[in-house]
Amino acid sequence: MEFKDLLYILTIAKYGKVSTAASELFIAQSSLSQFLKNYENSLGFPLFIRTNRGLFLTEEGKLFVESGKQILAMRRDFFNKISDLQNLKIGSVNFSISPFRAPYLLPRVIPVFTKAYPDIRLTIHEGSMKEQEEMLAQCEIDMGFLTLPMDNEQLPYRPATNEEILLAVPAGHPLCAKAHEPGPTGRAWLAVEDLSGQNFLMYSINHRLRSFAETLFRDHQLNPRIIQSHNSFETLIRLAEAGMGVTFLPETYLEPREGLRHFSLGRQGMSRQLVLGYVPSGYVSKAAAAFSDIVVEELRRQKEAARLIP
């Protein structure tokens, strides 16, 4: 059993379509189809059931995939430990992050890491919080960027930062006149009750900040007007800057914008805990630990920079 063969089968199982798997693996669809046919013939039993809706694992296939994931996880663990012995001269880091945060964090951490550790292969995966937790549980990645609370409480993690959630308000908006002098957060703040009836620009239903907003509205019995919902932070920020409404924004996403003001929610502010999640065994290679250090340091810098933005 070749590692390449395992990777091919697991990728087909992941997507349920040879065409999608071939695209992910950068090989021709016909070549992958022929590989699968030959491989199943060599095993003496089918791994997949072919249907019009795609490929589905047989019972043998399910066992194969489960065992294959364990084998690849052991292989990655082995090479991580070898990397540790060789003082980061070889090795890899598989890191996952949400597509929302990636543009704000990765351009600042990847260059630093690759310059410090040019021989370590860094692979980035993008996924939702749920997808990242699943990848960690299956040992498909070394670490993920998560928000507490996690659905899988068994996953070990390292605290990264306590991130304040701010309200981004168009400059000149009536809410700006209701702002109070800076409190413990060091930033001017708005009473949560003043948010009722405001025009809100919101995130998609499955986003963590959408859940944060809905909980805030419910707990404080607020009745906001949700006028737009989008998946893109940049779209929401630009709409707010254009005066369309207000929106919630994590402090580490702040960038200087003439048309926006940012306020704490209540005198004490509201925040969430960001963490770096690891595989269930708790093993963190030296390469993953080094990358973790760089991420945490960059978040500290982002928080400091955010304090200078009104």
Automatic annotation (TrEMBL):
<keyword id="KW-0804">Transcription</keyword>
<dbReference type="InterPro" id="IPR000847">
    <property type="entry name" value="LysR_HTH_N"/>
</dbReference>
<feature type="domain" description="HTH lysR-type">
    <location>
        <begin position="1"/>
        <end position="58"/>
    </location>
</feature>
<dbReference type="GO" id="GO:0032993">
    <property type="term" value="C:protein-DNA complex"/>
</dbReference>
<keyword id="KW-0238">DNA-binding</keyword>
<comment type="similarity">
    <text>Belongs to the LysR transcriptional regulatory family.</text>
</comment>
<keyword id="KW-0805">Transcription regulation</keyword>
<dbReference type="GO" id="GO:0003700">
    <property type="term" value="F:DNA-binding transcription factor activity"/>
</dbReference>
<dbReference type="GO" id="GO:0003677">
    <property type="term" value="F:DNA binding"/>
</dbReference>
<dbReference type="Pfam" id="PF00126">
    <property type="entry name" value="HTH_1"/>
</dbReference>
<dbReference type="Pfam" id="PF03466">
    <property type="entry name" value="LysR_substrate"/>
</dbReference>
<dbReference type="InterPro" id="IPR005119">
    <property type="entry name" value="LysR_subst-bd"/>
</dbReference>
<dbReference type="InterPro" id="IPR036388">
    <property type="entry name" value="WH-like_DNA-bd_sf"/>
</dbReference>
<protein>
    <submittedName>
        <fullName>DNA-binding transcriptional regulator, LysR family</fullName>
    </submittedName>
</protein>
<dbReference type="InterPro" id="IPR036390">
    <property type="entry name" value="WH_DNA-bd_sf"/>
</dbReference>
